[in-house]
Amino acid sequence: MAAAVAAGSTSAADAVGAVGVDSNMSSMTAAKEAGVEVPIPGMQDIQKGSEVKVRKAGQGERGTWRVLGEVANSGPDDPAYDLTNLTSGRRRIFRASRLTVVRAAVPGRR
Fold first, then answer.
1. What range defines the domain where residue 28 resides?
2. SS3 letters for 27-96?
């Protein structure tokens, strides 16, 4: 930093120079380029009737939610689901990456 200041630069970014920080995104893109599927934990268990909780829940997103179904055209890599809150009845749509399965769907009666 002192060398950068002596050279007339006042920016901390100039002081870092070539030392830069590698992000962890490079490993994720390398995995995608190699065709490696990285599964989202608990996503394979999400189906109509499952009970889930929301990760990093904000205000109004806390509690247990029941899955009503998958949203059309939501994409295969991170599908979206239509949910209803068990306590309040509020409906929301969340991506599978934010959901954790609490209770699997009850199998249908025959």
1. 2-33
2. HHHHHHHCCCCCCCCCHHHCCCCCEEEECCCCCCCCCEEEEEEECCCCCCCCCEEEEEECCCCCEEEEEH
